[in-house]
Amino acid sequence: MAHSRSGQGTATTTDGRTAGASSGWRRVTAGAVAVGAVVTLAACSGGDDATSSAAGTSAAATSAAAGTTGDAQGADGMSGMDGMDGMGEMDHRMDGGPAPAGIRPAASPRYPVGSKVTLTAEHMEGMAESEATVVGAFDTTTYAVNYTPVGGGDPVVDHKWVVQEELENPSANPVPDGGEITILADHMDGMKGAHGTVASSTKQTVYMVDYTVAGMTVRNHKWVVEDEMEPRS
């Protein structure tokens, strides 16, 4: 039987709930579903944003790492000219300047000034097999030396070459192997004023040469001894 109250009809359903209550339940349920959907979408959106952010961060990190690697490779590419067997490679001056004061020109060198030769020494990267021109030939004692660069750095071992006239207070006699020396030559950074020892010595005629390596001309390179060059064929 239907009852009327305040102008609103209420019907009893078969499960004992009123029609109004059932309708309200449906509205509550629908609302809950809608809220759940919004929460779910927000969560998904948040997840997407997090994923996107993570992906962006990862990409940025990858890019930064690649840049760092590239910089390191670039640096390696540049430093590839820096040090070979303690020789300093392209740390040598591109223009060695004039011969030291007091050095005696060779009276009858095998390779007079102006001779065209092929270098066999590898004092600097790319030097061996380079074509060169003799610009100076001298009679003196020439030393391979060990020293620690002024200002610090790795010790330089068996550097070739330094001549008698490039030593501090040179004596009239050759310095014996193992003898202590102070180097006044400025062939490379950190050499001038460095303390070291003689590794070996030779009395061969010693030469200054001009030569080209990697498209660059090295002038007045010091030093090349006689058995480190051949006549150019």
UniProtKB/TrEMBL annotation:
Biased composition (Low complexity): 7-23, 62-84, 96-109
Domain named DUF1541: residues: 113-164, 177-226
Pfam hit, one: DUF1541
InterPro entries linked: DUF1541
Renumbered residue ranges of the record's region Disordered: 1-23, 62-111
Protein name (Swiss-Prot/TrEMBL): DUF1541 domain-containing protein
